[in-house]
Amino acid sequence: MVSVWPTCASTCCLSSVSVLSLILLVSSSALGTRHGDSLSRRSPQLKMDQALLVIHNELHEKFTVYWRSDQCYQCLYQTLSVTNPTKGKYMEVAVVDTRYAITLQLNDTSGNAELCQVHYRFREFGNYSLWVKSNDSSTKHIMCDVIINYNPGYTNLPIVIAFFIYVGVFIVLTVGSFLLRLSPIQNWLFRQINPTETDRLINSELGTPSRADLYNQDAHCVSWNTAPQRLRSLDTFRGLALIIMVFVNYGGGGYWFFKHQSWNGLTLADLVFPWFVFIMGTSIHLSLNSMLRKGNSRWKLFWKVLWRSIQLFLIGLFVINENYCRGPLSWSEIRIMGVLQRLGLTYLVVSTLELLFIKQLSDTPPQTRACFLLQDVVKFWPQWLIILALEAAWLCLTFLLPVPGCPTGYLGPGGIGDFGQYSNCTGGAAGYIDRLVFGEDHIYQHPSSNVIYKTTVPYDPEGLLGTLNSIVMAFLGLQAGKVLVFYKNQHKQIIVRFFTWSVVLGVISAILTKCSTNEGFIPVNKNLWSISYVTTLSCFAFFLLMMIYFLVDVKRYWTGAPFFYPGMNSILVYVGHEIFENYFPFKWKMQDSQSHAQHLTQNLVATSIWVLIAYILYRKKIFWKI
């Protein structure tokens, strides 16, 4: 009977993917009228994150409409349209951005006199009118009003539909798993799978087998219920970060809030890579501690660490390098750094640091160990000194290194930011070091900053300087591993320590950022991997790991599914989703490339397939380790 359950689970997963595709495609058709019959023939074709604005000029003179996004900090206004008087015949049609609220500023053609300003949040695929008129014969009292001509409705509806589909599938699987554990259901399934006559013949020769023995043949269930040496919460956390990473890498349904922040601040996409780095640090301490207990020498473990780091770097450099999207590998344009390259370097440094100073703890620690947070720092003070030295190096290089043509200590995006004064200074010292070491052709060519800030110089978010803070992030994850080993099986102590770390790091983040997006000493910035970004994401990571540990390993309210399965095969899933990104069934030609529903369907189906693949590999006991 037990062998039936994986098949049922797989069937349910495939069915849910099919239902998801059908429903979201139907919703796509329902939203397909977004361009609207009310639009004029002159209206341009809208793309995602855009709306139409029809400008009615009832003045007797030309004026220029400028715009600026609220997300663009200290940015120059950009020209939207130059508008002639309407005179009842001519209307100017412009396309406006809908990701954030924008400010429209109207100036006379000389650009000196401001006529009026309008702050408005346009909705995607909408059709609006901007009426500009005067209260009197002069132009001293100008009125600017935005009117809705056509509102396309709720463009986030596909997300709501997808959410309820997945919740429904989760409920069905949970209820099904519960029912399969009931003796009457087990007996009925046993009778259906094994006909009565066959059962009678077997019993007449061999005697009736114990059904309890048959039902408990699943080695994985037994190992989790009776011998939980491996913490499922760690693999669950890793799998959660990985699956979100896969989803956002595939496009996140085309929604802007599932993409990386343009510069300062956070979106969902900015959370997952640091969490992956964090949990890698946790695993480093647990795995090295375990291998040392088994009698492996530190020198032998170092060579394993070095070889694994080289493999990660080479896979990132040659297997999933973005240049493959443009054709054969080009040595003149190959990107040197990347996600796996940074993981490889971080893993090497943190593992080496741990091998140099690791101290084995007894298998049966005392029941009471007070002030572990301080002991953690005191006992491993050489590690902390090195980490603090690395952070001091990041701070000195970031704020003291002279960058030609840029202010010292610049943390901005360049482009039209800072009122266009430092257009070629994207990333300050971080960008300068990468361009100096690798050359402009060997770093990332399309950073997220060029979307809002219109930057033109290449910038690599996985560059060298940011790798220093990636090491700090992994080291903080290492502390979580030390807590788990130090307080083995003392759940309350582990939870208290995780919460304490979360609060301490949260306070540091609040001080560094002044609880603001742009006004702090060091803003939270994924592109720079700023120290405030590290402390903020580590704060979240400790808290989330605490919650998952409580639910999965302490109370066992949750098995960690479905995130547990990709967490057990993380490298395979990550590399696989990058290599097969453009192959069916992970991608197909859409009828409407500007439909969120179709993008979301494609991205969720692709992500779900990788979860299913990870589940099947887990059942087959196939794990790819490097």
Describe what you observe in this structure:
By secondary structure, the protein is an alpha+beta fold. It folds into 3 domains: 4-32 and 167-221, no CATH class; 42-150, Sandwich (Immunoglobulin-like); 231-360 and 459-579, no CATH class. It is built from 20 helices and 8 strands. A 4-stranded mixed β-sheet has the order 4-1-7-8, with no helix packed on it. Strands 3-2-5-6 form a 4-stranded antiparallel β-sheet, with no helix packed on it. A hairpin with an 8-residue loop joins strand 2 and strand 3. Helix 1 packs antiparallel against helix 2 (157-180) and helix 10 crosses helix 15.
Brief write-up:
The protein has 626 residues and is α+β, with helices and mostly antiparallel strands. It has helices at residues 4-30, 157-180, 183-193, 196-206, 211-215, 219-226, 232-249, 269-293, 298-319, 339-357, 372-379, 381-400, 429-437, 449-452, 464-486, 491-513, 531-554, 564-568, 570-579, 596-619; strands spanning 50-57, 63-69, 78-83, 92-97, 102-108, 114-120, 127-134, 142-150.
